[in-house]
Amino acid sequence: MGITADDVARLGALARIRLTEQECHDLAPELNVILESVRSVSEVAGPDVPMATHAIPMANVFRDDVVTGSLTQEQALSGAPDQEDGRFRVPQILGEE
Amino acid sequence: MTPNLTASAAELARLMAAGELTSEVLTRSCLARIEQLNPALNVFLSVDAESALAQARDIDARRAAGEKLGPLAGIPIGVKDNFCTTDFPTTCGSRMLQGWTPPYDSTVVGKLRAAGLVIVGKTNMDEFAMGSSTETSFYGPTRNPWDTERIPGGSGGGSAAAVASFMVPLAVGSDTGGSIRQPGSVTGTVGVKPTYGGVSRYGLVAMASSLDQPGPCARTALDAAMLQEIIGGYDRHDSASIDQPVGDLTGAASAADLSGLRVGVVTELGGEGYEPDVLARFDEAVDLLRAAGAEVVEVSCPSFRYALPAYYLIQPAELSSNLARFDGMRYGHRAGDDGTRSAEEVMNLTRDEGFGKEAKRRIIIGTYALSAGYYDAYYGSAQKVRTLIQQDFDRAFEAVDVLVSPTTPTVAFKIGERMADPMSMYMADLCTIPSNMAGNASASFPAGLSEDGLPVGLQVMAPPMADERLYRVGGVLERALEQQWGAPLLARLAEKEISA
Amino acid sequence: MTATVDYDDLLTRYEPVLGLEVHVELNTNSKMFCGCPTTFGGEPNTQVCPVCLGLPGSLPVINCKAVESAIRIGLALNCQIADWCRMARKNYFYPDMTKNFQTSQYDEPIAFDGYVDLEVEGKTYRVEIERAHMEEDAGKALHVGGSGRIHGAEYSLIDYNRAGVPLIEIVTKPVKGAGDKAPEVAKAYVSHLRDLLRALGVSDVRMEQGSLRCDANVSLMPIGSEVLGTRTETKNVNSLRSVERSIRYEMTRQAAILDDGGKVKQETRHFHEGEGNTSPGRSKEEAEDYRYFAEPDLMPIAPSREWVEELRGTLPEPPAERRRRLQAEWGFSDIDFGGIVSSGALDLVDATVVAGATPGASRKWWVTELARRANEAGVELDALAITPAQVAAVQGLVDDGKVNDKLARQVIEGVLAGEGEPAEVVEKRGLAVVSDEGALSTAVDEVIERNPEVADKIRAGKVQAAGALIGQVMKAMKGQADAAKVRELILSKLS
User: Is residue C411 located within the same domain as residue C267?
Assistant: First the structure.
């Protein structure tokens, strides 16, 4: 039950990376080696072990509802590959209306 | 007057405070050294001599005017290229961010500026900090000043090599699985990963959010402590930042001995797979700690065996999400936008072209680990392993004050040696990963040289918010070794000629 | 597929099952995770910072007020409030999302298991709430070239001012058993939410500005079956009226397909306000895999029970109780009061009463004159350009005898047309009733002279005959007279 080249292509689509057929074929065995070596993690921890998500447990870290500075429009767009009328210009978006 | 570039930051700062050295002279010397060695070592990705000298002159003027300056004011420093800076590009070693200059400063950089340090440039790194050798940088590998055929560690090989080759006395790095400590170990320098939440991550381009932690790179324990005192502390922009006082780091770095300190040697971090020289230097270092008054015992942390596999699920999972924003829409590289392609297609092409092989590999693994049907088996299980590792640390720290291990199983390997075999590359972080998984403080200090004359490091691990214990152990070890050799370890590198 | 199905008829064969997802933009000062302002209508990309632009290295910090609002909304919806919950990342790529993940909540919503009780045509319906969770809004894309819609657009321009504005998503459990009233129940539900959120003061709840958005899931279940039918999700439902219309349309559309032996396709559809129908969105090749995981950059939210109880103490009167109280205070019959509620005028009437008008007059203006005008304009009552205080001022003019009812309607017209406050409209349009006794007296005399027989009848005691004369006097005065005053004059002259 390893990862196939088709799986890699599907994951590439999900991650928005165009992978060539060759890349998918090359990556599949590499990923299998890595996944084989990490498989052990599913065997160690029983159902009673809680999942950790943070190194140091904390809770309720909030900020006050106060307006602080924003960037200028020029700063906001400073890295934009393309812009028009103060907005980020991007290629046509396919998808929902 | 030519300053001694091999001097520690603390010593250089003392000279400046005493009026015997100016920041401009020091900065000029550092810039000359960078100019001389950077072609061979590829340490700095960007350097701004004009700006650095202007900063230096400003500090000198303020000092001359009698202004009270911070303890490291005027000291030149290198900054890893994943910290946002408004005056340098921030590329993260990736083509994706080639030429991108952020409109804001990271908190760490803001603190450096406020403390008067002179930022001379940005240091090379593995692409988005993914690697243990600085070979995955789009801008070419950095070379180890001890042997330019070898890697300087990674991902922060640039920062470590900058400090080791005397280009700058200090640098900052970031450590997700060992990216400060392992380069420190293989370059004979000090690298510290503070407690998670001890130094703000705001403005540090994220790799794996729950693991990333900025920290100091230096040549001595005291220098690292001084730098951590500057960059550390609470920051309301980082929700994980800890709003609690830390111990006296610089005081600890100058501690006379280790009497009363209980040191645990981790059983699981040693033995098979470790180079004999690494183990020999480690044992000798532990003997020195014992001689300095420490009580040494062996401690078992059985779950550490699963740290590496669990890390290689959590880290790719988080980074697959963190790196999603690099899509060529708002900043950075954009590929294939010929006016006919859709945004989706342009994103696909941009991410194919902008990311290197290792980045893609990890993004795909992370996407897989988080995808429906596999989440529980992979990501969920890995987070449980993380709990087990934390429990191992908790138990260990009931019995001892610090844990020690080799920092990495081998000395610096040859460039290209492990690039074709990701798993062998990942093994370099075997010893450093547990502290990222648990969030506790950890550091690497020089422990001597292998038979081949390559540096070996000793890792010290302390409980969360007990960072001062790292510096106490590191400082004492440093002085004991210096006494043995009659000079700092890096003095041997200072005598060598570095060339590609 | 053009077969028309009779609405009442389809209900003999199918039971509609609804699911409503309402997104509410909170009216906090600053965004969900950063200090940028949330105000509507700023210059593009001027209300953005490294955090909401998703710049590399930036980190979110939760807005405390947004959490507070979420808890208050949860409590007002009779929900449980989580002891401990986390934000999560919902991963998918879309150019209006700066990080290509939305920071949301997944399996740990802050509020869950609630309900609201609604009254529709005298019957009470309970809509159960599955969950209310916190998330962030996305930027806004402007499509350039082609038709202006996405399909055929040459490129898009994106403004991220709205990115990161706090949202609460409120999701119902499947709503069953409403039968033919399903569309009305849905409308009543959204209307109820709107009133509730306004009373809580947590949102501007303006559907036309997008601060309240409704997605309607509709499916039909053959009567007698236990198996839910395939559902569609209708978006772009931007008014209360559209909630009802879009659901009614989907029910008939789906019934026609099922009657033909076809299968309803699970898809997202878009409601077209003008045509009153829905059309399919672009279908995705495969179901999205959002790869949810707990947001590692944010710490868990663990509201203390003390905090929750403190917030419970700040809740406004529950709508049902408030309605009972106001009906009693105002002394209206069920029919009159029901008219106020069903026309969505309750808050407006209440505010008009508070501004000084009598309940009767307040009801009259909102439920008749203003409701008619709103209907003509095709907008909600509260979208009319007149405030309860202005309505009360108009009634004040009537009470003072400055204008009569007919003139008052013209005053309202003037206010709606933006001509200023009621008193200014009276001034500018010259609408004040004539109180000049001389002119009025002359007009009355002339009318009496032209109608000797009617005058005789009144003299003989047939007072009701005065109506015919009053009308003529009013006509002669071009309406600008106080009818009561005219009547008084006629009667005194003929007594």
Answer: no
Tell me the average pLDDT of chain B. 96
Measured between beta carbons, which residues in chain C are less than 8 angstroms from residue A77? 45
Residue A55 sits at the chain C interface (C-beta within 8 Å)? no
Q: Is residue C21 part of a domain?
A: yes
- Distance, in angstroms, between B94 CA and closest chain A CA? 15
Pair C391, C479 in one domain? no
**Residue C313 neighbours by CB under 8 Å, 6+ apart:** none
Q: Which domain holds residue B465?
A: 9-255+441-494
Choose the final residue of a domain: C248, C277, C310.
C310
CA distance C117 to chain A (A): 32
- B405: tokens are 């291990």
Q: Are residues C169 and C129 in the same domain?
A: yes
Structure tokens at C78: 């009779």
Tell me how crowded residue B284 is: count the other CB atoms within 10 A of its CB: 15
User: CA A42, A44, A48 angle in degrees (round to 5)?
Assistant: 95
Would you state the pLDDT for residue C288? 80
On average, the pLDDT of chain C sits at 91
Q: How many CB pairs under 8 A join A and B?
A: 180
- pLDDT value of position C210: 87
Side-by-side strand order, sheet with C111-120: C80-81, C111-120, C123-136, C166-172, C14-25, C212-222, C232-237, C267-272, C277-280
Which of C310, C333, C350 corresponds to the end of one domain?
Answer: C310
State the smallest CA–CA distance between residue B202 and chain C in angstroms: 6
Asked, for residue C2, whether it belongs to a domain, the answer is: no
Interface with A, mutate which of B384, B429, B430 (most A CBs under 10 A):
B384
Cβ separation of A11 and B371 shorter than 8 Å? yes
Asked whether C382 and C204 are in contact (CB, 8 A), the reply is no
Percent of chain B with pLDDT over 70: 100
- Using an 8 Å CB-CB cutoff, list chain A residues near B337: 81-82, 91
Catalytic residue among B8, B23, B137, B155: B155
Name the residue among C28, C158, C302 with its Cβ closest to that of A87.
C158
**Cβ-count burial of B451 within 10 angstroms (0-12 exposed, 13-18 middle, 19+ buried)?**
exposed
pLDDT average, residue stretch B315-323: 97
Residues C134 and C226 in one domain: yes
Instruction: Tell me: do C60 and C206 sit in the same domain.
Output: yes
Question: Is B155 an annotated catalytic residue?
Answer: yes
Same domain, C152 and C249: yes
Residue C493, pLDDT score: 85
- A-chain residue closest to B310, CA distance: A41
Interface test with C, best of A11, A51, A66, A67 (most C CBs within 10 A): A67
In a domain, B231, yes or no: yes
pLDDT, one tens digit per residue, over C82-97 is 999 999 999 999 999 9
On chain B, the residues whose CB falls within 8 A of the CB of A39 are 309
- pLDDT for residue B125: 98
Residue B468 lies in a domain: yes
Interface of C with B (CB under 8 A): 50, 53-62, 89, 91, 93, 95, 98-101, 154, 156, 158, 289, 291-293, 296-299
Q: What is the pLDDT of residue B69?
A: 96
Residue C177 lies in a domain: yes
- The closest of B442, B409, B449, B359 to B153, measured between CA atoms, is B409
Q: How far is B378 from chain A (nearest CA, A)?
A: 7
**pLDDT tens digits along C97-153:** 999 999 999 999 999 999 999 988 889 999 999 999 999 999 999 988 876 555 566
Give a yes or no: residue B478 inside a domain. yes
Q: Is B111 a catalytic residue?
A: no
C105, C220: one domain? yes
* Confidence label for B313 from pLDDT (cuts 50, 70 and 90): very high
pLDDT digits over B117-148, tens only?
A: 999 999 999 999 999 999 999 999 999 999 99
Task: List chain A residues with CB under 8 Å of C294.
Answer: 53
The answer to whether residue C1 is domain-embedded is: no
Answer whether residue B344 shows pLDDT above 70: yes
Which residue segment(s) compose the domain that C397 sits in?
319-429
Whether B50 maps to a domain, the answer reads yes
Q: Report the CATH number that the domain containing residue B129 is assigned in CATH.
A: 3.90.1300.10
Of the pLDDT bands very low, low, confident and very high (cuts 50, 70, 90), residue B189 is very high
As for how many domains chain C has, the answer is 3
Query: B80 pairs with which residues across the strands?
Result: B123
Distance (Å, whole) CA A83 – CA B5: 47
What the block records as the tokens of B407 is 């920092």
Q: Are residues C191 and C142 in the same domain?
A: yes
